[in-house]
Amino acid sequence: MIGSAVSNLGGRLGLCRVGSCDRMYMDASRTAVRRFCSFACRSRIKVAAFRRRRHE
Question: Mean of the pLDDT values across residues 34-48?
Fold first, then answer.
């Protein structure tokens, strides 16, 4: 039962791209481009990139 539900999701399951996060997410967006499990993880990466650019 679970196997068939997972296979129907295709490429919609993913792992968060933050190195310290081990959460999975299900991408329900129309274009299937989600990369993070939450807004907190996304924000953490964006803030780090901003700070890195400022110090260059």
Answer: 94
Backbone angles phi, psi at 42, to 5 degrees: -60, -45
H-type alpha helices, the chain: 2-9, 39-54
On whether the CB atoms of residues 27 and 12 are closer than 8 A, the answer is yes
How is the chain split into domains, by residue range? 12-54
pLDDT in tens, 4-28: 545 566 678 899 999 899 999 999 8
Q: Is the dihedral of CA 32, 7, 38, 20 positive or negative?
A: negative
Long-range (24+ apart) CB contacts under 8 A made by 6-15 are: none
Identify the sign of the CA torsion 37, 42, 43, 49: positive
